[in-house]
Design goal:
Rossmann fold, 2 domains, alpha/beta, 12 strands, single chain, 5 helices, 6-stranded antiparallel sheet
C-alpha cells in the first residue's frame, strides 16, 4: 500500500498532557471512521530507540479536509518532534487499517467504553454518525482521572446536544467536584444498566489502556454479554 505524504497544518492542546495534530488530507487518501494508521515524521530533528513513527487512530471523518490524530505527550524524541514542530512538518501516513468501525446493521445500539486516549477512534465514529444523521443509538462511557485530563470534553458535550441519538456519560475517578456534570468513580455494571436499556441487544466497543480494556472485558463477561458482541482495541503503554 502506498505511503501518503502530508504536512502539519495545525495543532492544539486538548487536555492536560494531550495534544491534537491536524494534517492536510493527501489526494486520493481514504479511511473509515474508527480506523488507525502509522504516522512517520519524514525528517525528524532528533530520534531515539523508539523510532520516528507511531500508530494513531483518526479523530477526523473521511469527508473532511484534514486528517487528525491525538496523543498523550510523553517524553520521547517522536513526541518532542511533534510538539516543537512548526507548521509544514512533513509526515507520511501509512496503511489505514482496523476493523473497529461503525457497523452496517443499525438495529443494535452501540455502547462505547473508553479510557483516556482510547477516546480517539470513538471521536471519529461519533462525528461520522452525527455527520450521516444516523438513527443508531450510541452511548459513550468515557473515564478519566480528572476533568483536566479529559480530552474533547467540550466537543463531546456539544455533539450530545446536536445529536439526539448520542448519549455522553463522562466519568472521573480521582476528583470529587460538586460542579461536575457526570459520574464519579469507575464504570460499573450499575452505571451501564442505568443508561443502557437492553444490554443483550447491544454491540460494545472497548478502547483504552491495557488495564482498562481488561477490566471492561471482565465486566461485560460478568454481565452475560457474548464475546461476539464485543470489539476492543488495546492501547497498551503510551510511547
Amino acid at each position: 500500500m502506498s505511503d501518503f505524504k502530508s504536512k502539519l497544518v495545525r495543532k492544539k492542546q486538548i487536555a492536560e498532557g494531550t495534544m491534537a495534530f491536524y494534517l492536510e488530507k493527501p489526494k486520493d487518501f481514504s479511511f473509515v471512521a474508527g480506523q488507525h494508521a502509522t504516522f512517520q515524521i519524514a525528517k525528524p530533528k532528533e530520534t531515539d530507540a523508539e523510532g520516528d513513527s507511531r500508530t494513531f487512530s483518526f479523530i477526523t471523518i473521511p469527508s473532511g479536509n484534514e486528517v487528525g490524530f491525538a496523543s498523550r505527550m510523553r517524553d520521547s524524541a517522536f513526541k518532542r518532534n511533534l510538539k516543537g514542530a512548526g507548521l509544514g512538518l512533513e509526515i507520511d501516513i501509512k496503511n489505514p487499517r482496523g476493523s473497529m468501525v461503525l457497523p452496517q446493521d443499525l438495529r443494535r445500539p452501540l455502547v462505547f467504553l473508553a479510557g483516556g486516549i482510547g477516546i480517539t477512534p470513538f471521536m471519529s465514529m461519533i462525528r461520522q454518525a452525527s455527520y450521516e444523521k444516523s438513527a443508531q443509538k450510541i452511548f459513550l462511557f468515557y473515564s478519566n482521572r480528572t476533568v483536566a485530563q479529559t480530552a474533547f470534553l467540550a466537543d463531546l458535550r456539544q455533539l450530545a446536544k446536536e445529536n439526539e441519538n448520542f448519549n455522553f456519560i463522562p466519568f472521573i475517578t480521582q476528583e470529587k467536584l460538586s460542579t461536575w456534570q457526570g459520574e464519579l468513580g469507575y464504570i460499573s455494571e450499575e452505571a451501564v444498566k442505568k443508561y443502557v436499556p437492553k444490554i443483550g441487544e447491544t454491540l460494545f466497543y472497548l478502547a483504552g489502556p491495557t488495564g482498562m480494556v481488561s477490566a471492561m472485558s471482565e465486566l461485560l463477561a460478568s454481565m452475560g454479554v457474548d464475546s461476539l458482541f464485543i470489539k476492543s482495541e488495546d492501547y497498551g503503554e503510551y510511547k
